[in-house]
Amino acid sequence: MLRATVLMLFICSLLTVACEDEIIETRPSNGQLEFSKDTVFLDTVFTNISSSTRSFKVYNRSSENINLPTIELANGESSFYRLNVNGIPGKSFENVPVLARDSIFIFVEATIDFNEVSDPLYIDQIVFDRGPNQQEVELVTLVQDAYFLFPERDANGIKETIVIGVGPDGEEIEVEGFYLEGSPKWTDEKPYVVYGFAGVGSGNTLTIEKGAHIYFHDNSGLVVEQGARLKVEGTQESRVTFQGDRLESFFDDIPGQWSGILLREGSRNHIVSHAVIKNSNVGLFVDAAESSSGQPALRISNTEIYNTSSFGLFARQTEILGSNLVIGNNGSASLACTEAGSYRLAHSTFANFWSGGVRVLPAVLVSNVSESGQGEAGLQATFENCIIEGNQGIEFLLDQEAGSQIEFSFANSLLRFEDPGGLFQGDPLYDFTNDELYRNNIYNGNPDFIDPESNDLRIGEESEARGIGNVLVADEFPFDLLGIDRRDSPDAGAYQHIIVEE
Questions:
Q1: Which of 355, 349, 284, 354 is nearest to 320 (CA)?
Q2: How many of the other CB atoms lie within 10 Å of CB of 463?
Q3: How far is CA 39 from the centre of its chain?
Q4: pLDDT of residue 372
Q5: How far apart are CA 149 and CA 195, in angstroms?
Q6: What does the pLDDT read at residue 24?
Q7: What residues pair up with 300 in beta bridges, in sequence order?
Q8: Which pLDDT value is given to residue 10?
Q9: Minimal CA–CA distance to 353: which of 248, 474, 447, 491?
Q10: Residue 471 per-residue DSSP state
Q11: pLDDT category, 317, cuts 50, 70, 90?
């Protein structure tokens, strides 16, 4: 018994010594702190949406442990910024130690109500100590007002849903979403932030005017239903942008941040002009949209689609006229024309330099192979004055159902098709001497892209696409994606070449 008591006293004495050893002797700060940043810039945020977290270090370069009497936000408890110091959240802190020749991390984030600030550039300070030893680190954030669109909840808290398709067993595919009222017009007055899927109901038209910015949350997108229509009316000076809602610079070119735009079976007469669609799973999925009144199901022009985790533009059983179209950096094909339909692409650039993993499909896929295994009649695909390029040897593929026909042609284009193993040798689909299928093309030439890894698919003066375009096609589409007149000497692709000064 005595032995046990002595042992317990011994253990307690050790603990006491240990606790005493943890007491840190400090002196007050003398205003000689150093900071890894003198200004912390948080990325642009939408009103009432939390920012990403930023951090910086506070250094004590001296040989003595110091104590910071206070660390606080200049705007106090009313500040829209939040801090975390040594793992403790708050807006003010007292007696914070910083060991000799050591540092501490401070984390900063913000949630700002646009209606409560006088200037969209919201500024505050982190103040270290007071009086003659006071030091500051500036905090700066730009806050945007926005229209927020999201599915409502019922009395049981369940979000409303919409149907976006039919599964392989005939079951409806439901997702969280909502239908827009009537035929709305989205303008450039404020950005639109979409949560879930926004649906355009049958008989209605969604018009998106020049300069509008549409941001989608994770697993969100736009669905245009049977009998409905999408009109995107951007201009050369004021394009319409579709992208994810993460505004941090890190997310500028990250694929798969939102789902994409779906033009469902029976929707019709869509127009997309001067738009940028980026960082989605699929850029545009045109699923058996219909033509009417002599107009194609989709007329898409002067539009860029980048950084999709799967397809850039996937089309099935539809009719598309595309011009000055640029699609690149896609996890699957940049363009897929499938099952049936009519597809005409003129002065377009498809350049897939995907580096995010293994890419099985080429930049351009033309296929009449259907899910039923029965070839669909009437697939036509025409490529005129185009560039088809990428980081694989074969960048266009023709997939034909046995016993069926594909009508296609490539003319006055720069094409990437390297088949050193002779896999397609003797295949009549790839008989490049057949003038009915292939006319005036250059194979495996140098496109001289300015910076394909950064989606700058303009071409330089060394490009072999220079001057190979058909003049009659150029007369139909006289200006390139940047508004440059191409009629005198048309280059293939969406851009006329530029001269890059060293």
A1: 284
A2: 24
A3: 28
A4: 61
A5: 6
A6: 63
A7: 272, 322
A8: 34
A9: 447
A10: H
A11: very high
Place of tokens 């540092």: 103
> Taking the CA of residue 440 as centre, how many other CA atoms within 13 Å lie in the half-sphere pointing to its CB?
15
Sequence-distant (6+) residues with CB within 8 A of 502 are none
Closest alpha carbon to 387 in 493, 476, 292, 281: 493
pLDDT band with cut points at 50, 70 and 90 for residue 292: confident
CA 156 to CA 430: how far, in whole Å?
60
Helix (H) or strand (E) holding 12: helix 2-21
Give the Cα separation of 162 and 453 in Å (integer): 37
CA distance 365 to 399: 8
421-444: average pLDDT: 95
How many Cα neighbours within 13 Å face the side chain of 465? Answer: 31
What span, in angstroms and rounded, lies between the C-alpha atoms of 359 and 195?
30
pLDDT in tens, 68-122: 999 999 999 999 999 999 899 999 999 999 999 999 999 999 999 999 998 889 9
Q: Average the pLDDT over 8-12 and give the result.
A: 38
- Provide the β-strand partners of residue 321: 299, 344
Q: Is-contact 108 54, C-beta < 8 A?
A: yes
Structure tokens at 447: 């496109």
- Residue 38 burial (CB < 10 Å; 0-12/13-18/19+)? exposed
Q: How many CA atoms lie within 13 A of 142 on its CB side?
A: 5
Model pLDDT for residues 468-501, shown as the tens digit of each residue: 999 999 999 999 999 999 999 999 999 999 988 7
Query: What amino acid occupies position 129?
Result: D
Chain centre to alpha carbon of residue 157: 31
Nearest to 385 by CA among 467, 285, 452: 467
pLDDT tens column, 152-183: 888 778 889 998 888 888 888 999 999 999 99
Check if the beta carbon of residue 443 is closer than 8 Å to that of residue 432: yes
In a 13 Å sphere around the CA of 103, the CA atoms on its Cβ side amount to 11
| pLDDT, tens only, 116-129 | 998 889 999 999 99
Q: CA 346 to CA 384: how far, in whole Å? A: 5
Q: Enter the DSSP assignment of 394.
A: B
260: left (phi over 0), alpha (psi -120 to 50) or beta: left
Q: What is the 8-class DSSP label of residue 472?
A: H
Give the strand pairing for 66-73 and 121-128. antiparallel
One-letter amino acid identity for 425?
Q
